Every structure is written in C-alpha cells, then in structure tokens.
C-alpha cells in the first residue's frame, strides 16, 4: 500500500503511480474526490474534455481507451446488469467509482489484476491509499 496525503493541486502524484491500463477501483465517501481524480487522470493523458460522474449512464469513455464507470450502491451488480463486465477485460484504462470487494474478487478469479484507491479526508486535503500499484 502506498499512502499519499495531498492537496488538490498535487493530484499528479497519485496519477503517476497508477497504471496506464487495467482496472482502477476508486472508493471513498460521497464527495471524497473520486471524480476529481478521474479528471486529473484524463487531463494528464492530454485529453481536453469535460469529465462528469456517469451516475445515470453507468459508463462514459474519454479519448482513446479511458473508461469511467459509476456503480454507486450497486457494485458488481450494476456492472453485470448493464452488460459491462466484459468491457473491464478489454484493453484500456477502466476507472470504476464505487467498485466493491465482489468486483475485485470477480476480476481476480479471471486472473485480472486491479488497483484500488481509497480516498478519505486528511489535514492537508485528501489521503490516497493505493493498493496493488
């Protein structure tokens, strides 16, 4: 586990340690900064587009092979119900807000590695705990 305590202007430090492809599960309370981190990742890839949480559409794509999922309250079930599980196995970077332990296990059972980022408040701004990077 890598732990970083950062202000909003220091998000590039988290972006640097995340993989270029694969699944990244983003966990944290409401308004903890999950979508803000996705915005920083998209910007770091040189993609100039508006990034919003795909709460109602479940998945959005940005640029070349960056996929953003929001599975609030439904975890793995939301991915399965929307027929998106196979998408997670495709080439690209898959950023999953609200991913749960069941999703992690399902990916592990298929031999897929995923990185998990847990975001919480800290004195400096936010604490990012990165597992599996």
From TrEMBL:
Gene3D superfamilies: P-loop containing nucleotide triphosphate hydrolases. The keyword Magnesium applies. Belongs to the TsaE family. It comes from the Bacteria. Keywords: ATP-binding, Cytoplasm, Magnesium, Metal-binding, Nucleotide-binding, Transferase, tRNA processing. GO terms for molecular function: ATP binding; metal ion binding; transferase activity. InterPro entries: P-loop_NTPase, T6A_TsaE. SUPFAM superfamilies: P-loop containing nucleoside triphosphate hydrolases. The lineage of its organism: Bacteria, Pseudomonadati, Campylobacterota, Epsilonproteobacteria, Campylobacterales. It is found in: Cytoplasm. GO terms for cellular component: cytoplasm. Its main location: cytoplasm. This is tRNA threonylcarbamoyladenosine biosynthesis protein TsaE. One of its GO terms (biological process) is tRNA threonylcarbamoyladenosine modification.
């Amino acid at each position: 586990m890598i732990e970083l305590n950062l202000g909003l202007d220091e998000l590039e430090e988290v972006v640097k340690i995340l993989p270029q492809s694969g699944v990244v599960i983003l966990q944290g309370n409401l308004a903890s900064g999950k979508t803000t981190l996705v915005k920083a990742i998209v910007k770091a890839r040189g993609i100039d587009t508006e990034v919003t949480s795909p709460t109602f559409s479940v998945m959005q794509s940005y640029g070349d092979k960056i996929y953003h999922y929001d599975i609030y309250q439904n975890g793995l079930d939301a991915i399965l119900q929307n027929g998106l599980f196979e998408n997670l196995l495709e080439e690209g970077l898959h950023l999953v807000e609200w991913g749960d332990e069941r999703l992690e296990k399902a990916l592990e059972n298929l031999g897929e590695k995923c990185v998990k980022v847990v975001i919480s408040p800290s004195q400096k701004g936010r604490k990012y705990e990165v597992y599996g990077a």
